[in-house]
Amino acid sequence: MSEILRMEHITKQFGSVYANRDITFSVAEGEVHTLLGENGAGKSTLMNILSGLYQPSDGAIIFNGKKVRIDSPARAVEYGIGMVHQHFMLVEAMTVFENIILGLHRSEPAKNKHSIFIKKDTLKKEILSLAEKYGLELDLDKDISEISVGEQQRVEILKVLYRGARLLILDEPTAVLTDTEARGLFKIIRHLTEEHKSVIFISHKMREVLSISDRITILREGQTVGTVLKNETSADELAQLMMGHKLADQTYIKEEKRKDALLEFKHVDYNHLSRHSGLSDICLSVSSGEIVGIAGVDGNGQSQLAQIAAGILKPDGGTINLQKNTVQSFTPSFFIDRHVALIPEDRGRMGLVGAMTIEENLILKDPGNSSFSWGNGFFLNWKKIDRYAEQLKEKYDIRCENINQEVRNLSGGNQQKVILARELDANPDVLIAVHPTRGLDIGAAEYIHDKIIQERDRGCGVLLISADFDEILKLSTRIAVMFEGNIVGIYPGNNPPLEEISLAMSGKCALPQNHVPHGDSYETDAG
């Protein structure tokens, strides 16, 4: 196959820090070429250079045999290069349709030749036809702020496809997708390569990498370790190349200890007429020393469940109890004061303030704390804050230039560690963990898992929500399945019935909420 892209000796510096150092990388026509590496290895930086967001400090880009200068994302689109970013580039106040056509320069048949006005109906038909072709089901008239993270990912993919990219860059595209949705995406990718389009695929999931790739290039600390053929490598070899050492496979002991509930949902409703953003008659409890995993396809009410559990949303009906006391005030501060911690589903949008420093984000929930301030919370004591932030930096292995670095300049894994440090250092009684390892590499994911298990063993009750079914199976003491805003079954975490759970997740085996398969001792309040 002919070579469509070559990046030669690419170097990118930010001050004294090298994000990329002398990287040479090529992609063939009709190929899926995976970039593999830990968070902070330089993958996204390299692709941001290719997509025109960054300019290289040194090196050259050859596209279709010609040396090119890609000085903006618009220029990349002109060449036929489209990137789906890990952190979405969407305008929340606009609709799905408006985001897809934003900045579009196509004229026929979207405009009359005598008019400057866009023919929306024509464009919508084109977009819906493309969405149907690739199985990207979306409501074009909904605002981005009203749809799930998984649906936002679909918007990004559809937006790039609609612009006719010949080289598609997918940066962690399945981080927000279930296994079923990921398989659907892989069909799309194969269809694209059959049309002689090329795909650069960035992922931390070994199964995906070995399933979809033709070639795999491994980066470590901003440099190329090597390029291998998929059929000539293994998951263990890739992990070792990526991390520089062998990773031990971790398993966790699970014991059901039926203690008093720390968090209880009793017949909770929220926007119950909606199948994808509502809750209906939810009965669920989380006890001390257990992890209750919520399994299900993203967009079946999991986000709303988490936000109610953290006091961000107020239920329309039913009761929430915290340590046997009925909640009267649904505000985040009320729940924080009662030792509820939250790892939110979108760290950039909901967990951190990107323009603030690491240390400012670490004290964000309680800046008036006497440990951080003078004069009853009116003046910040920066010496104490510096010491506290340095301690957390070491304790949680936050890899950064210094604690005064803006948090938006950290890798995804280190951003997640900042959130983890802030939330767990307060020794919460209840932890709400939503997609805690989304977009993280193997090492970072194992680190997060270990910390969650430590919280469980300390006596914390954990509500774990994840679209990664393997993560749910690995960590959960009990597994509750959600479908269209309902809990359709609760299963044991030890030796769970996988086929039954899979059917329940797809809605093909919907069970009454108080059904507890295989003799599990849990009983809901609905029972």
Write a compact overview of the structure shown.
The chain has 527 residues and is an alpha/beta fold.
Walk me through this protein's architecture.
The longest helix has 17 residues. The strands form 5 sheets. Strands 6-7-8-3-9-10 form a 6-stranded mixed beta sheet, sandwiched between helices. A 6-stranded mixed beta sheet has the order 16-19-20-13-21-22, sandwiched between helices. A 4-stranded antiparallel beta sheet has the order 2-1-4-5, with helices on one face. The chain is of the alpha/beta class and 527 residues long. The chain is globular. Strand 4 and strand 5 form a beta hairpin. The C terminus is likely disordered. The protein is built from 17 helices and 22 strands.
Q: Please give the radius of gyration in angstroms.
A: 24 Å
Reading side by side through the largest sheet, how are the strands ordered? 6-7-8-3-9-10
Helix content: 25-40%
The overall pLDDT average reads 85
- State which percent range the strand residues make up: 15-25%
- Sketch the major β-sheet: 6 strands, mixed
Structural class: alpha/beta
Span between termini:
62 Å
- Globular, elongated, flat, extended or rod-shaped: what is the shape? globular
Strand runs, count: 22
Low-confidence stretches: 106-116, 510-527
Distinct helical segment count: 17
